[in-house]
Amino acid sequence: MNFNIEQSFKEGVTAINEGKFGKAKDLYQAILRIVPTHSDAHNNLGICLQKMNKLNEAVTSFKQAILLRPNFPMAYNNLGVTLKIQSKLDEAKDVYKKAIEMKPDFALAYNNLGDIYEKLEKLDEAEDCYKKAIELKQNFPEVYYNLGNMLTKLNRLDEAKLSYDKAIELKPNYKIVLLNRGQILFDKGEHELSLKDFDNCNTPDSRSRSLVSLYALGRIDEIYNRINTLSELDEDNIRIAAFSSFIAYKNNINTKHNFCKNPINFINISNISNHIKDHNSFISQVIKELQNIETKWEPLGKTTIKGFQSKSTLFESPTENIKKLKSIIINKIEFYKSIFKDENCSYIKKWPINIKLACWHVILKQQGHQNPHIHPGGWLSGVFYLKVTPDLGLKEGAIEFCLNGEHYRDINSPKIIHQPKSGDIVLFPSSLHHRTIPFKTDTDRISIAFDLIP
């Protein structure tokens, strides 16, 4: 039976559209064994490899497609997408520009270039790209979404809402846009409308925001009804776990949500001096190794104020002493779990089997602090203190734990303040709100934060 190249190519496209990337990959590789110069097959093979997270192989396929057909703007665009996933933003930017140079009406490439500029925090350039994409293709919901996000970062909320409105008009069930528009409506005090958007979105994140909207509306009975009805579905929902702890304390009535009812009781504090004899020398070496790690000043979307923060990949290719610290933290986590092994809550009883550690470091300068937050992607969170500041009798530079969230609070909510010492390791549930108290001392406060992620 003869192999039909044209038919196999079409079957590969269908397989990609159906998400069957392994099947599509096999088809395109079979085509390329017969016709190694088939540039479209190389391009589509790259798409499959990218979707299968084989990013280096995908880059090779896209570059081969471009080598065979230098004027191939879609292959340049796809290469740019892959480079962005690899965090090679400057390379991706150049590739998108090349695609636009070849195809000046390439709205998709303008949108993607705007996304790169936004990630590079060049927001004026990002806005220009998004608006050019809209000029070229007005029925493009994704670019309205991206433009709305960028305008939100610039606190141009009315303009952002209009952009989200257009995205939803074009794509009514666009969940992430409903979520973001709902938050703008919430921030404007339009809580009934925010509740409607969050409910229409119906994701784990939006369900937690629906509860906060109901709280703003004073509909407490409905809050309990929703939490109790969805307690199994949202059992591991860290945002709802945080809110459930708050509302249960405030009303002195427990919910059925059983992730971690009293997260403040699950704080554990120890010091690395119990593990390393010359711990001061070890800490100095870790600080020295951190100097080679790239950081950003007040990165967008993070809670760090007046400070630098690195990416959360510190433990992926650790240097000598950071690798040693990683081992200590893993042992601390195992010990932590054993301390609370008899607790009857999902946090302990359903401790994830397959885990990874996300880790980053933060350097706070004078008046630096972390705004109150939780870690919704984590299970257990922690911080290791390398360099601390004096409290001056005001708990400056301390970490504060509390049940209050950004949009819900009670003056009587319990809180714990810990003034850290150099070498302290503090572990706590990822659902527990925490912040750093600002400090006036002109010195650096250096810490390493981490999440145990299911």
Give an overview of the whole structure:
By secondary structure, the protein is an alpha+beta fold. The chain folds into 3 domains: 5-183, Serine Threonine Protein Phosphatase 5, Tetratricopeptide repeat (Alpha Horseshoe); 184-259; 264-453, q2cbj1_9rhob like domain (Jelly Rolls, Sandwich). Helix content is 51%, strand content 14%. The protein has 18 helices and 10 strands.
Summarize the structure.
This protein is α+β, with helices and mostly antiparallel strands and 454 residues long.
Helix and strand sequence: HHHHHHHHHHHHHHHEHEEHHEEEEEEE
Fraction in helix: 40-55%
Largest sheet: 7 strands, antiparallel
**Lateral arrangement of strands in the main beta sheet:** 1-8-5-10-4-3-2
Count the helices. How many? 18
Mean pLDDT: 94
Structural class comes to alpha+beta
Overall geometry: globular
Question: What is the topological layout?
Answer:
Elements: H1 5-17, H2 21-34, H3 39-51, H4 55-68, H5 73-85, H6 89-102, H7 107-119, H8 123-136, H9 141-153, H10 157-170, H11 175-187, H12 191-201, H13 204-216, H14 220-229, H15 238-251, E1 268-271, H16 279-290, E2 295-297, E3 304-310, H17 320-339, H18 346-349, E4 356-370, E5 380-387, E6 399-402, E7 415-418, E8 424-429, E9 433-436, E10 445-453
Antiparallel strand pairs: 1-8, 2-3, 3-4, 4-10, 5-8, 5-10, 6-7, 6-9
